[in-house]
Amino acid sequence: MAAAAQNSPRRVSYASTTVVDVDAATLHSEVSRSNASLRETPLNSTIHNADDGSHLRPADHAGSNGSEGLRRVASTEQIHQQDDIFHMVKATSRMRSWTKRITTAPQTPGVRYPRLLDRDARFYQSLGRFAVRRSMPLHAFRLYRSDWFHFLVNLATWKIVVIMMFLYVVVCVVYAGLFHWSSSACGLELKTFRQAFMLSLESLTTIGYGVPDPYFNDCLAGPFVVLSQAIVGLFVDSVLIGVLFTRFSRGTTRSRSVIFSNKAVIRAVRDQWHFMVQATEIHPNPLVECHVRLYAVLHREVEPHGKIFFQTHAMRLTHPADELGGVLLLVLPNVITHQIDPWSPLMPPELRTATDKKFNARRDFGFPDVLQRDIDVAQGAREGVPSEDKSDFPSLEARKEMIRSHLMKNNVEIIAIIEGVDPHTAATVQARHSYTYRDIVFDHAFAPCVTKGSDGACQLDMYFFHDLVPAGPDELLELTPSIA
């Protein structure tokens, strides 16, 4: 019983992200023979939940089991193992509502951690709002306000509706005054301003209730008043339709069907640490020509200038290769991979150059040089010295702790941007997401969430999209849903 309990899968929540703690060797074996039977005795699954605010940081889970004192046991249930690895993960992850709303995944109850990019949407997603306060002189603000159409489009929908209703009322009132002023000369027989307002409203909306004399008693002012109101009415209608159409068809709403994993992982592959995130789309008509970019925003200590805040660094991608455009097929999950090499902003500064401090552009990074990739040297695409071949390069585990310390010390936030084209409207859609060091888990892989249905069709189960499984160096690479 003790051995069975020791080898049993467990599910641990990292701020509502499920981590299925399955023995790595067993999991690797099940991937290799996915149709093999796992007929073992029922096991006890201890579920730790952080949805109520309790949290186990990735740093606390650096060991094999993590700190048990930080885990809160929510429930215990009997689970039977299934025939393949997908059902094994599925058995240890109970069905939960994937439309659950969270704020910024607080690590402490009642505490919100600052982010450059929000995490305020459902399913642990972002609304794409950057938390940037802009202070500018008046003439610069007027330059921004000169583009009145896009300024109006970017307002809240209720503000647009209020502005348009107010504009309609103003037009009706102005022309009601003109009709009331020309009533005697044009034979309109308007005795009150209310009657003039009704005539103005009927003319603007072309209702056509009529007046005593439809020819305005051949007065000179009548045709000009009606013609000008008709032109103004057409202009107001066209602006209203254009603004509302642009507002409702904008790409920010369409981008919400692009889903990013709640947590990013950093894992070792062939003696190199890699940063990985997972993304897919849930819309039945997926975006076309999708490509991805990653940026790192960090605060650096620069001597003798002190702290440099919100410094942006581009991140080269190895999968999908950014030199090929970083193209994605979002109809299925894609793992986006960045190698942490000397050109990576996630690499600690002390590892970017050799200990002799002699800069070499072939092996070291320095601004404003063009960003390179260490993998290009290893594959013979360019000359240089691979970082792992440097005599002063630390071991894999030492680099792991240095990277972890670098992410926390500089409050690194990685921003992922996916762009694509909607096939129906041909509009460019941009989805954004961010990961701080609190959202990064070491030595884990994304659990499989794609399986084959009973009819042989592909089945993407979003209930398990955020799940993670422990993975040591070079382990469980077969679980990666997108290989090339």
UniProtKB/TrEMBL annotation:
<feature type="compositionally biased region" description="Polar residues">
    <location>
        <begin position="32"/>
        <end position="48"/>
    </location>
</feature>
<dbReference type="InterPro" id="IPR040445">
    <property type="entry name" value="Kir_TM"/>
</dbReference>
<dbReference type="GO" id="GO:0005242">
    <property type="term" value="F:inward rectifier potassium channel activity"/>
</dbReference>
<feature type="transmembrane region" description="Helical">
    <location>
        <begin position="224"/>
        <end position="246"/>
    </location>
</feature>
<dbReference type="InterPro" id="IPR014756">
    <property type="entry name" value="Ig_E-set"/>
</dbReference>
<feature type="region of interest" description="Disordered">
    <location>
        <begin position="32"/>
        <end position="71"/>
    </location>
</feature>
<keyword id="KW-1133">Transmembrane helix</keyword>
<keyword id="KW-0633">Potassium transport</keyword>
<keyword id="KW-0407">Ion channel</keyword>
<keyword id="KW-0812">Transmembrane</keyword>
<keyword id="KW-0851">Voltage-gated channel</keyword>
<dbReference type="GO" id="GO:0005886">
    <property type="term" value="C:plasma membrane"/>
</dbReference>
<feature type="domain" description="Inward rectifier potassium channel C-terminal">
    <location>
        <begin position="401"/>
        <end position="468"/>
    </location>
</feature>
<dbReference type="GO" id="GO:0034702">
    <property type="term" value="C:monoatomic ion channel complex"/>
</dbReference>
<dbReference type="InterPro" id="IPR016449">
    <property type="entry name" value="K_chnl_inward-rec_Kir"/>
</dbReference>
<keyword id="KW-0406">Ion transport</keyword>
<feature type="domain" description="Potassium channel inwardly rectifying transmembrane">
    <location>
        <begin position="154"/>
        <end position="250"/>
    </location>
</feature>
<keyword id="KW-0472">Membrane</keyword>
<keyword id="KW-0813">Transport</keyword>
<dbReference type="Pfam" id="PF17655">
    <property type="entry name" value="IRK_C"/>
</dbReference>
<dbReference type="GO" id="GO:1990573">
    <property type="term" value="P:potassium ion import across plasma membrane"/>
</dbReference>
<protein>
    <recommendedName>
        <fullName>Inward rectifier potassium channel C-terminal domain-containing protein</fullName>
    </recommendedName>
</protein>
<dbReference type="InterPro" id="IPR013518">
    <property type="entry name" value="K_chnl_inward-rec_Kir_cyto"/>
</dbReference>
<feature type="compositionally biased region" description="Basic and acidic residues">
    <location>
        <begin position="49"/>
        <end position="60"/>
    </location>
</feature>
<feature type="domain" description="Inward rectifier potassium channel C-terminal">
    <location>
        <begin position="258"/>
        <end position="359"/>
    </location>
</feature>
<feature type="transmembrane region" description="Helical">
    <location>
        <begin position="151"/>
        <end position="178"/>
    </location>
</feature>
<dbReference type="GO" id="GO:0034765">
    <property type="term" value="P:regulation of monoatomic ion transmembrane transport"/>
</dbReference>
<comment type="similarity">
    <text>Belongs to the inward rectifier-type potassium channel (TC 1.A.2.1) family.</text>
</comment>
<dbReference type="Pfam" id="PF01007">
    <property type="entry name" value="IRK"/>
</dbReference>
<keyword id="KW-0630">Potassium</keyword>
<dbReference type="InterPro" id="IPR041647">
    <property type="entry name" value="IRK_C"/>
</dbReference>
